[in-house]
Predict the 3D structure of the following.
Amino acid sequence: MTRWPLPPSMRAALEQAQTARDAGEVPVGAVVVRNGQVIAAAHNAPRGLADPTAHAELLAIRAAAAALGRERLDGCDLWVTLEPCAMCAGAIVHARLDRVYYAAPDAKGGAVEHGARVFDQPTCLHRPEVYSGMGETESASLLRDFFRERR
């Protein structure tokens, strides 16, 4: 699988992705971390919540904001198993997260290093640091297996 041990934060995001898969949702998980501690964790739930915006990132951001009692998440990092889409990238900007770590790229729906490249736009209000690839093999495998089972 991976050549080095995964950081605990990405392991926690992958566990959330597995929870999503078990619930019949696209297996994407996310956690928000502050001072090395997970303060919020979520998985994709658009079907279960009947909400097209219930992506793992948005749910984790909402939970972190509620836990901290503020709308700005400066001092926090987001760990997610799949490259965020344009909607989630926009939420990341507005939340003012310091860093985004994502496992697998999404050439079709991603908007960080693919597609819209939201953080690279001149009108982007905030640009988090972005790191990718940690847990890519595990995340990509979860996604591939999930969609193979449904074909």
The radius of gyration is 14 Å. The chain has a mean pLDDT of 96. The CA atoms of residues 103 and 134 lie 5 Å apart. The first helix runs from residue 8 to 22.
